[in-house]
């Protein structure tokens, strides 16, 4: 992850990881939405360029991303209406987030295939981290694993009994999630800096 991407990552973490409920099923829905929005946004930029609507490019692309969000929301409503009610405004925050817009409008001069590859790789890398984050919050915060269930219900499997989670349950709260994401970002930054130092040392030899 580049130095610039660290700030993008931080903005995305504060928006999606911290504010969302600490359950894996909610994280999964948001992660799928994020990838869908990045995909549709990248395609929308190329479509607008092809139609030569450069003067209204930003407005048009954001409108198409929001339209894609509404479509995605309706699909989830049909599958799990409880999830949509719980997430509320967070579903609409993703298409307007610095993360989505930052990557969608990046390197617009490149070919569509190259932009799709770069944007989706970045999105998938973040998605893996986000899913692990939500899984840890679900397991340690609530002692459960949640996913889509039958009959429009959320499936919940108890892994750790509530009385055994103890102080770890704070990770399910917003302050706990904020601290946890900060710790993980610090660890990432530390190892990234160490890697940069090693690379510079090898080059200078």
Blueprint (SSEs and pairs):
Elements: H1 3-18, H2 24-50, H3 57-79, H4 81-87, H5 90-93, H6 98-104, H7 112-142, E1 144-148, E2 154-158, H8 162-165, H9 174-204
Antiparallel strand pairs: 1-2
Helix pairs in contact: 1-9, 2-3, 2-6, 2-7, 3-4
Protein described:
By secondary structure, the chain is mainly α. Helices cover 73% and strands 5% of the residues. It is built from nine helices and two strands. The protein has helices at 3-18, 24-50, 57-79, 81-87, 90-93, 98-104, 112-142, 162-165, 174-204, and strands at 144-148, 154-158.
| Terminal-residue CA separation | 25 Å
Percent range for helical residues?
over 70%
Query: What does the radius of gyration come to?
Result: 19 Å
Strand order of the largest sheet: 1-2
Beta-strand percent range: under 5%
Give the beta-strand count.
2
Outline: flat
Helix run count: 9
> Which structural class fits the helix and strand makeup?
mainly alpha
For the largest beta-sheet, the strand count, sense and barrel status come to:
2 strands, antiparallel
Residue-averaged pLDDT: 83
Low-confidence segments, ≥5 residues, pLDDT <50? none
Following the backbone from N to C, one meets helices and strands in this order, namely: HHHHHHHEEHH
């Amino acid at each position: 992850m580049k130095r610039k991407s660290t700030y993008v990552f931080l903005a995305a973490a504060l928006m999606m990881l911290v504010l969302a409920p600490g359950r894996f099923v909610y994280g999964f829905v948001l992660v799928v939405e994020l990838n869908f929005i990045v995909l549709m946004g990248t395609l929308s930029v190329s479509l607008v360029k092809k139609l030569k609507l450069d003067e209204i490019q930003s407005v048009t692309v954001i409108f198409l991303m929001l339209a894609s969000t509404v479509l995605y929301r309706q699909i989830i409503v049909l599958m799990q209406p409880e999830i949509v009610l719980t997430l509320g405004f967070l579903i609409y925050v993703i298409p307007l987030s610095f993360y989505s817009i930052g990557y969608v409008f990046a390197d617009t001069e490149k070919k569509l295939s190259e932009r799709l590859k770069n944007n989706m790789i970045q999105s998938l890398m973040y998605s893996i981290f986000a899913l692990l984050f939500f899984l840890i919050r679900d397991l340690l915060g609530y002692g459960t694993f949640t996913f889509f269930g039958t009959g429009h219900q959320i499936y919940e499997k108890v892994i750790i009994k509530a009385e055994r989670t103890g102080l770890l349950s704070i990770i399910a709260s917003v302050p706990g999630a904020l601290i946890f994401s900060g710790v993980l970002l610090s660890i990432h930054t530390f190892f990234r800096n160490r890697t940069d130092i090693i690379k510079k040392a090898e080059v200078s030899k």
